[in-house]
Amino acid sequence: MAVAEFSWAVSKNRFAFPAIGVTGSKLSDEVLIGNARWFIIFRWVVIGVLILFQIFALVASDTLTKIGITHQQGWPIAVTMVLCVANIAYIYALDFRQSTQYNSPSINIWSQIIVDLLCLSVVVHFIGSTATPAPFFYVLHIALSCIFFSTIESLIVTILVCIMYGIVLLGENPLLFLASQSMLVDSSTPSVNPLKVNILLWMVTLDVLFFTVWYVVSRLSIVVRTHERQLLDAYEQISLAQVEKDRYAVLMTHQLKAPLDAIRSKINLIKGDYCGVASPEIKEVILKIDSRASGMAALILDVLKLERLKAAARSSNALEHVNIETVISKCIDKLKPIANSRQITIEAFIENFVVKGIPDQLEILFENIIANAITYSYNGRSVEIASAIDKRDSSASVTIIDHGIGIGDKDLPHIFDEYFYTPRAALHNRTSSGIGLSIVKTVAENNKLHIKVLSEQNVGTIFSVVFQDAKTSFAPQKNYAAI
Amino acid sequence: MHTSIQRLGPDKLSSQLTNSILANEDCATYRIAHIDDDPDIRDTVRRILSANGYIVDSYQTMGDFIKALQDSKNHPNLAVLDVMVETMDSGLEAYVEIRKRFPEIPMIFMTSLGEEIRPYFTGVTDEWILIVEKPVEPTSFLSIIRSRLDNSKSAADSS
Predict the structure, then answer these.
(1) CB of B152 within 8 Å of any CB in chain A?
(2) Residue A269 contacts by C-beta under 8 Å, 6 or more apart in sequence?
(3) How far apart are CA A117 and CA A425, in angstroms?
(4) Between A254, A274, A304, which is nearest B17 by CB?
(5) Which of A69, A97, A286, B62 is the most exposed place for a label (fewest CB within 10 A)?
(6) With an 8 Å Cβ cutoff, is A471 touching chain B?
(7) In chain B, what residues touch A262 (CB-CB under 8 Å)?
(8) Residue A377: which of A411, A413, A339 has the closest Cα?
(9) B87 or B74, which is more confident?
(10) How many domains does chain B have?
(11) Per-residue model confidence (pLDDT) at position A26
């Protein structure tokens, strides 16, 4: 005896986002390399600014001296040189050397940060460590490190910044702390005190500012990273669901169409006289059964096709160069037997051109339009297919003309609506599904095409598919009539 | 056991189906394996091929077919495979296995989904796979079978 238990009580929280500790997460090498490259580009800009500064210094050195910036020592040239050499070294390490234990993207980035901070400290020292905007550029480094690194790493950068700024201030006033102590003991030197208090105040204030900026920006970047991760997860779930949906659609289509195919296979046995010769009456009935069944089979496949085309619109399909003549001849070859069975001639006047598009989809588009033209033609008439390229604005068009029942003025605006069909069309063609033109519309959307429809009831319809950016094909022009 | 191997020789059938066109003598030696879980399709294919002088081995599952290939030295000249037999992928899995173990057997696929099944073949093999859409239409089905057999024969002759 076999026993199986089934339970549906377990909640499948498929779309819940996992709680991630983004704070301590290490960034992948790929992201680090991307950031390193971005820093390098940014540094070239800074180098450019420094060079401009030097040109300005040459032209108007007096003005600079007046503002209190010392440039005579040649520090801008030194900083520019150091940054240039460093930048070239980073590029060399990133692009031309194997990544090893001592040449990893993270070491590269850390050396960039340290060299940058050293250079900035030199700049700060010469421009003025207090009472000038120079020290505020440290904030930029902190903000950048918060955006690109993990929280711990950006905290290390912040501490480094504080230390370096402290060193700059100490270097300028070696007796900074001693003096302030002596200030308490010896009150006879009041003239020095305000300056030292001032420097200490700058240091403390800026250090507080650096940590505040670190805290605020790193919090923000944690939020942004969490959202980014959630978005990625959601996108992954959507792609998985898409695959699952396609499998389901394929399975359903198969289950619906398979019995019909079995029926039609048996009908084909009777039609082909494999079960003895059938009377003409039986054959006629059998043909009618087959025609209805084939309409239903086509509808089932069209639903799957439409679903797939809609899904294709969401994924980025690679556009290829498509030779329009090949596409149209394929369609004509496919549809010729149907046209012949109703004494309809297909006349093609093809001026070949090449457009960018998705080849399979363009084939589906023309197959549907030409099949419609044949279906709604009167028996014994012709379907004309012509293509032309307009060299002035490099646009091209394919026009399909039929002489048939046409479309009423009232219905014309709705022909591309999903599952839309008119009683007139249904009377003319019992197997109409109302999907064919929805497929055409979806393909046109995916390939960014323009379609113009002209129609007069009981006279016929003209479909023009317009392509932008068409190129002339060098193949010889062909005019042929196909029957 | 659900191995259902039905064999009907041309001699037996020619009397049964007097009106069907018998193919030339040369075809009588061709053996075609057909795998499909739908008994109606199996029956249709068997009738059409047998009436035209082929020997048909029908199998209900891919497992049955592969087992028959292992047990017998007399392999078919062509195999007609359904894609979705028991599960969605069984046809593809069988294709990969047969291609690996019995590379000399040419195969074609027959499925209700026609060309729409092709996305499922991407990544399975680099070879071009012939897919025939159901229903079985005698004239076109026979011409496909004939051209496939001719192709594999000329390939065998040249090698």
Answers:
(1) no
(2) A275, B44, B47, B48, B138
(3) 77
(4) A274
(5) A97
(6) no
(7) 38, 40-41, 44, 135
(8) A339
(9) B74
(10) 1
(11) 55
For residue B118, give the amino acid letter: R
Tally of residues, chain B = 159
Provide the residue range defining the domain that includes B108. 10-158
Residue with tokens 């509808």: A299
A residues 443-462 lying closer than 8 A (beta carbon) to B: none
CA distance A19 to B139: 62
pLDDT tens digit sequence for B89-108? 788 888 889 988 998 899 99
Q: What are A192's two structure tokens?
A: 């020095």
For residue A370, is it left (φ>0), alpha (ψ between -120 and 50) or beta? alpha
Chain A window 218-247: which residues touch B at a Cβ cutoff of 8 Å? 246-247
Note whether residue B109 is domain-resident.
yes
| Amino acid, res. A416 | F
B88 in contact with A at a CB cutoff of 8 Å? yes
Q: Is B117 exposed, middle or buried (0-12, 13-18, 19+ CB in 10 A)?
A: buried
* Sheet order of strands, A450-456 included: A450-456, A460-467, A395-402, A382-390, A345-350, A478-482
End-to-end CA distance of chain B: 40
What class does CATH assign to A318-482? alpha beta
Residues of chain A with pLDDT under 70: 1, 6-27, 64-73, 175-194, 314-317, 431, 474-483
Read out DSSP for A17-37?
PPP---TTPPPPHHHHHHHHH
Touching check for A269 and chain B: CB below 8 Å?
Answer: yes
Beta strands in chain B (DSSP E): 31-35, 55-59, 78-82, 107-111, 131-133
- Please state, in angstroms and rounded to a whole number, the distance separating the CA atoms of residues B127 and B151: 15
Size of the A and B interface in Cβ pairs below 8 Å: 76
CATH number at residue B17: 3.40.50.2300
A265 touches chain B (CB under 8 A): yes
- CB-based burial of residue B17 (10 Å sphere; 0-12 exposed, 13-18 middle, 19+ buried)? middle
pLDDT of residue B7: 44
CA atoms within a 13 Å half-sphere pointing along the CA-CB vector of A149:
23
Alpha-carbon distance of B41 to B4, in angstroms, equals 14
Taking contacts as CB-CB distances below 8 angstroms, the residues of chain B near A270 are: none
**Residues of B whose CB is below 8 A from A279:** none
Question: Two tokens at B140?
Answer: 């076109």
Are the C-beta atoms of A24 and A222 separated by less than 8 Å? no
Each domain of chain A, given as residue ranges in start order, spans 29-239, 318-482
CB A378 within 8 A of CB A414: no
B113 lies in a domain? yes
